[in-house]
Every structure is written in structure tokens, then in C-alpha cells.
Q: What sequence folds into this?
């Protein structure tokens, strides 16, 4: 056993009874040390010494595997524990379990009531005080990184880092360029990453919105071609058994504002608030700014109302730490000129308040043939990184999926496909059932 | 609350936000070793003031040149 340094100026103990192979007991006073002399290994603060003297006693304490605080008073225990953490930080400290002393105030009271066995039991359930400044990696919470929802378009995610909580993204583009379709896909991608979503679509009835989303969720592999009985037109749909699986996948996680409801800004924001609190939705879509009902009708008031609503969406995104997509149509621009952030219809305030502004442009046939893609997604504003991106996208019409031009890949799978369909199957006669006879209860 | 109007010459984009938020985003971005390139141009005591400045700035400095069209 190592030779112990002399700390008798600051601690009361029996030097000849010390055993450095066993934990050291830190008792309340000299009387408790005396009561523990049978077991040995007990110390108490000497009269006239203070907690600061623990600094000089650190090598002494460190000679033992740990120091057990045999103190009944919780406040006293915390005080000694904190003093040891400050003045003898290298010493592992064990704290008695709650109620270890029951109603006894001292070790000698425990000894008198229950004998040596009762004293030995004081250490049962003792917990080690976490060392200040030392983290167990398993206990380290994530969250240093601000959470972001990835778009699923790698080039865009690399540029902007995904869609961050507390931000507003404005999406603009001429009618029919695919804004709603692309945003539907982004909502599905968010869902696939585990983020519940909520949407307001002022232009589409709920059944149409779902029909389009179903095609995107199903993917080209699962959609079937059908022909309209009257017009003869070909269209694509999702078979009922696939729709059932997709419904199960997004149930309770994908919400749509009911357009039969008021459709005004107050009710939309009120239901969005509910969706955050009740369903933990992280990504919201307002499609679009021009279909919202505002009370003002005069042009100037209408623009002012749009501006106010955008401000309310920004405030909602920041306060609830969600990301909001806002679709805004552009005002008419000179033919052939690319859209800019300022081209968003109505008040300029809309793009001013947005953290990101994206524009989607569908190319004419000649340009598409020359460039090798049909649609261009451009970042017009990115407040966080200042990234300006221009990404060519292709479109798979059957399943309405956009994908990065040149990758040739529109057949990615959403997680509904991981959940296998449960069916009853009939086994050939005489074949043994799996697990049969294994005694499963 | 103090409102800021910022401008990015590279993006040609205006941003209006509270000072608190602008600083928070700048700290996050700078910590990642990036620079968003937005320059603060105006401080005001209301969002209306900042937006009014933004509109004036837009008219004076964001007018497209014929060659850009």
C-alpha cells in the first residue's frame, strides 16, 4: 500500500487504520470517525480547518479509489461534494442514495440502531458524482447544428445547407412552371426525413392535391396508366393497395388546410400554430399568397395585407422554429428576361423579409433541347450563405417527379415502401408453420 | 426593436429583419466560415421605416440596365 501523506492538520482520522484499497468515508465529525474506527477508512474535517484545505488533502484523497460522503444532511453533502469538486477535482466522489440514512442524523446513530451491518448498507446504491467538465459522450445531446430539412436535390442542399428552422423561403415562377409540384415533392422529402409537414393549397381541392402527391410518393414504378372513358386521354394513377400503404405512411404526419374552411390569413395561421403544437410539424407551405383572403380590396391595401401576412409568417417561423415555404407569383416581366427577387408580385416587402427566394422557370422547347433540361431552379436570394445556384431539372411526367438533370434518376423510394404489406397466405398442406412447436407464449 | 435594411450587391437582393435576427444569422454563418455578403444600409425603429428605405434604395440603385435585360 502507498504511504499516505500526513494531513492530520486538516482531517481527523486514524492513520494506522487506513486501507487505500477501499473507499474512504468522509464523516460529519470526529465522533462519527470514532464510530467508524472498527471499519477504518474514515475522515472528518478537523476543528479549525476549512473546505479550502481540501486542496492540501487532494493527494491523500487521491490515494483511495473514491471518497464516500457519509453525510445524512443533504445540504451538507452538497456543500462537501462541491468543495471537493473545486479543491480536489481529481477525486472520484460517491454520494449516498436518497434515504440511505432514513431518519438518522449521523453514522453513529445508524450504528447504534442497526449495528455494523446497517453502516455497511449506507454505501448500497451510492452514485458517483459526475466529474465537472467531463462529459459522457452518450449523454451529449445533439442540437449544436441548427436543424435543417434537406430538399433532396443534392446541388441545392450543398449550396444552401437545406431549409433551416425559423426561416421563410419564397418560391416564385410563372403559372404552370411546376412550383406546386416541386414543393409537394419537397414536402414528401421532408416527411421521408421524419419531419411532419402541413400545407395550405389555395388553388387545388384536397382530392386533387392528394392525387398529385400520391403519384409523387408512389414513383414511376408504382403508377399505372389509365385512359379516360370519355375523352380518351391518358392519365396515371396509383393502385388502391399502394395508396393504402402511402396513407399509412403519412397518416398523422402530413396535414392539409381544409379549403372549405375560411381560407383567410387568421384561420391559416391559427391552424398552423395548432399543427406545430399538436403534431410537431416542422415544414409549412402556403400556396399561394395571391389566393389568400384578405379583408382589404383596394390594390394598395391588398399589397399591404400581403406584406403584413408575410411578416406574420416570418414571425411564426421564428417563434415556433419551423420553416415556411411561401409561393408568390411574379409580376409580368419583359419577355425572355430571367426572374429576379424584385419581380415577385405585389409589395417588395415579400422578398425583403424572406430568408431565401427561389425561382422556377420552365424553358421553351428550343432552349430545353439546347440545354438538355426542361426546368431551371435558381436561388435569387440566400441570406445565410449568399449562395446563388442555377440547377437544371428534368421532369418525369407519369409520377410528377423533378430530378437533377443528367442523373437520369427519378425512381428513388420513399419509406412507405419499407413497410411491407401484411397479407394472409395459405401454406401447402402438410407444411409446418414457422416457429411451430417452439413454445411461444 | 431595431430594424435593419441590408443589401447584397452580388445577389442584388434586399433583406429586412430585426437587428437581433441579423446578428444571430451572421454569427451562425461566420461560425461556418462563410459570408452571406449582405451589407447593412439602414437602421430604423420599425419595420415600416426599414421597408420604406428598402423601397427607396430599390428605386435608386436596383434599376436594371438595358444590357441586363
A:
Amino acid at each position: 500500500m502507498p504511504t499516505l501523506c500526513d494531513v492530520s492538520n486538516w482531517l481527523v482520522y486514524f492513520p494506522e487504520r487506513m486501507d487505500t484499497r477501499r473507499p474512504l468515508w468522509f464523516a460529519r465529525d470526529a465522533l462519527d470517525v470514532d464510530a467508524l474506527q472498527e471499519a477504518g477508512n474514515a475522515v472528518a474535517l478537523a476543528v479549525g480547518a476549512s473546505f479550502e484545505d481540501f486542496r492540501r488533502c487532494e493527494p491523500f484523497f487521491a490515494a483511495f479509489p473514491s471518497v464516500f460522503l457519509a453525510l445524512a444532511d443533504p445540504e451538507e453533502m452538497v456543500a462537501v461534494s462541491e468543495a471537493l469538486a473545486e479543491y480536489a477535482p481529481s477525486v472520484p466522489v460517491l454520494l449516498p442514495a436518497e434515504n440511505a440514512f432514513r431518519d438518522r442524523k449521523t453514522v453513529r446513530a445508524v450504528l447504534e440502531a442497526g449495528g455494523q451491518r446497517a453502516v455497511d448498507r449506507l454505501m448500497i446504491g451510492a452514485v458517483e458524482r459526475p466529474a465537472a467538465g467531463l462529459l459522457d459522450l452518450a449523454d451529449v445531446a445533439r442540437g449544436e447544428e441548427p436543424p435543417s430539412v434537406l430538399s433532396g436535390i443534392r446541388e441545392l442542399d450543398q449550396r444552401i445547407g437545406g431549409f433551416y428552422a425559423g426561416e421563410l423561403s419564397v418560391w416564385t415562377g410563372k403559372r404552370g412552371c411546376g412550383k406546386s409540384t416541386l414543393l409537394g415533392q419537397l414536402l414528401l422529402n421532408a416527411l421521408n426525413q421524419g419531419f411532419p409537414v402541413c400545407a395550405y393549397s389555395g388553388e387545388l381541392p384536397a382530392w386533387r392535391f392528394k392525387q398529385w402527391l400520391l403519384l409523387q410518393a408512389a414513383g414511376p414504378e408504382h403508377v399505372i396508366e389509365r385512359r379516360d372513358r370519355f375523352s380518351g386521354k391518358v392519365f396515371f394513377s396509383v393502385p388502391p393497395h399502394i395508396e393504402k400503404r402511402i396513407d399509412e405512411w403519412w397518416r398523422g404526419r402530413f396535414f392539409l388546410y381544409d379549403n372549405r374552411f375560411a381560407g383567410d390569413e387568421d384561420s391559416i395561421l391559427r391552424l398552423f400554430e395548432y399543427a406545430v403544437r399538436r403534431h410537431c410539424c416542422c415544414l409549412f407551405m402556403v400556396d399561394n399568397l395571391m389566393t389568400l383572403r384578405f379583408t382589404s380590396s383596394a390594390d394598395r391595401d391588398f399589397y399591404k395585407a400581403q406584406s403584413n401576412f408575410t411578416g406574420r409568417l416570418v414571425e411564426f417561423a421564428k417563434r415556433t422554429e419551423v420553416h415556411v415555404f411561401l409561393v408568390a407569383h411574379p409580376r409580368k416581366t419583359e419577355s425572355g428576361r430571367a426572374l429576379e427577387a424584385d419581380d415577385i408580385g405585389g409589395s417588395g416587402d415579400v422578398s425583403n423579409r424572406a430568408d431565401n427566394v427561389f425561382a422556377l422557370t420552365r424553358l421553351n422547347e428550343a432552349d430545353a433541347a439546347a440545354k438538355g433540361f426542361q426546368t431551371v431552379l435558381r436561388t435569387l436570394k440566400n441570406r445565410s450563405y449568399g449562395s446563388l445556384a442555377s440547377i437544371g431539372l428534368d421532369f418525369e411526367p407519369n409520377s410528377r417527379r423533378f430530378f437533377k438533370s443528367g442523373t437520369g434518376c427519378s425512381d428513388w423510394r420513399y419509406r412507405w415502401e419499407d413497410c411491407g404489406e401484411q397479407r394472409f397466405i395459405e401454406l401447402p398442406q402438410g407444411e409446418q408453420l414457422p416457429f411451430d412447436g417452439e413454445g411461444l407464449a | 426593436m431595431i430594424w435593419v435594411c441590408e443589401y447584397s450587391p452580388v445577389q442584388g437582393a434586399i433583406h429586412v429583419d430585426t437587428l437581433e435576427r441579423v446578428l444571430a444569422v451572421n454569427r451562425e454563418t461566420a461560425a461556418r466560415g462563410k459570408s452571406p455578403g449582405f451589407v447593412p444600409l439602414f437602421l430604423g425603429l420599425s419595420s415600416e421605416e426599414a421597408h420604406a428605405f428598402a423601397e427607396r434604395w430599390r428605386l435608386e440603385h436596383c434599376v436594371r440596365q438595358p444590357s441586363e435585360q
